[in-house]
TrEMBL record:
Keywords: Signal. Residues 1-43 form the signal peptide. SUPFAM superfamilies: Calcium-dependent phosphotriesterase. The keyword Signal applies. This is SMP-30/Gluconolactonase/LRE-like region domain-containing protein.
């Protein structure tokens, strides 16, 4: 509902609140005269707009796949596809190694558990790491758990025996109890690993299968379900934690082909970072919203990011950031070419969120 469609009294209330400098959400709270609950719920939450100076990560050929934020350090954390390690990145792009476990190959998804002082890492092998696995390309599927402050290993969990065939474990998300949910892009499987390192198949279904890279980014919604994106066709799924077999595709008009990273903002807004798949080069961030608990959703905004192959995003102090380093060039290059790749990753603010 636009302000001009509200009653004169409601318009005066909103105008006074705006002059007082209230946020969009606070405006909604005070502007109750002549407003419906739905009208309030759709106050602007996520704004997509590239802004600020990008941060160059000063370590060539790091090729990060995932970016997180460690509030205990006040720094970004990034995984390294090439080095099989995790680094902290400060505001000037300086890096320091946080985790260096020789068992890790290519680190994709990472997740921070500040409450328990843990850092989770997903390890796969596509033959594009300086630390090849003994299992060989497309066979490694592992999760490492580390002390957040020291980087010391707590658990190392082999997921491959849980599901036959090829593997590319990729995304990871944590629930409030400290359980991890891990997607597999080559096997139609989501795994669950508890805080003690016990692993099981959480959900396996052929709807998650397809050509190329499939299940990818995942987030845990505070109301008790996962949201998961399937990169190959851009589908978004809702998976109940208490009864995963009752999962369903989120009804949204668009498909987010190349969907890689998901960032949940509050309960009703989701940012999808998409790169390339199935001949489609999305290379964009998509802002979605839902008013019915993610049974349905609608696209609210798109920010085109250019030919940079963005992978994942993170929310830090109300600002949305993505990371990119043309990771696809590393994956697609020959072993001879990889030693000459020297791209430095970039962290770019692409928007903001009012919580």
């Amino acid at each position: 509902m636009s302000i001009m469609n509200r009653t004169p009294s409601a318009r005066r209330t909103i105008a006074r609140a705006a002059r007082a400098g209230l946020t969009a959400r606070a405006l909604c709270a005070v502007a109750t005269i002549g407003l419906t609950a739905a009208g309030c719920a759709r106050a602007e939450v996520v704004t997509l707009k590239r802004t600020g100076q990008p941060i160059t990560v000063h370590r060539p050929a790091l090729y990060p796949e995932t970016i997180e934020f460690d509030s205990s350090r006040g720094k970004f954390l990034v995984s390294s596809f090439w080095e099989g390690a995790i680094y902290a990145v400060d505001g000037d792009g300086g890096v320091s190694r946080v985790v260096d476990d020789p068992r890790l190959c290519s680190v994709l998804g990472i997740a921070v558990d500040v409450e328990r002082g843990r850092l989770w890492a997903v390890s796969s092998d596509l033959g594009a790491s300086i630390k090849p696995s003994s299992a060989g390309p497309k066979n490694l599927a592992a999760v490492g758990v580390y002390d957040l402050s020291t980087g010391k290993a707590i658990h190392y969990v082999d997921l491959a025996p849980l599901s036959p065939g090829a593997h590319l474990v990729n995304g990871i998300a944590l629930d409030s109890a400290g359980n991890a949910y891990v997607t597999d892009s080559f096997s139609p499987t989501i795994y669950k690993v508890d805080p003690q390192g016990n692993a099981a198949v959480f959900l396996r279904d052929e709807q998650f299968a397809g050509d190329g890279i499939n299940l990818n980014g995942v987030v845990v919604h505070p109301d008790g379900y996962l949201l998961v994106v399937k990169k190959s066709d851009g589908s978004l799924f809702k998976v109940p934690l208490a009864n995963p077999s009752r999962f369903a595709r989120v009804d949204v008009a668009e498909r987010f082909v190349g969907g890689d990273g998901l960032t949940l903002v509050g309960k009703k807004d989701l940012v999808v970072v998409a790169n390339q798949a199935a001949g489609v080069a999305s290379n964009a961030a998509f802002s979605l919203s839902s008013e019915d608990g993610w049974s349905t959703a609608r696209l609210r905004a798109v920010e085109r990011l250019g030919d940079v192959y963005p992978t994942t995003g993170v929310l830090r102090d109300g600002k949305l950031y993505v990371i990119y380093s043309k990771l696809n060039e590393l994956i697609q290059s020959s072993p001879e070419q990889r030693g000459r790749l020297r791209v430095e990753a970039t962290i770019q603010q692409i928007g903001s969120a009012a919580l």
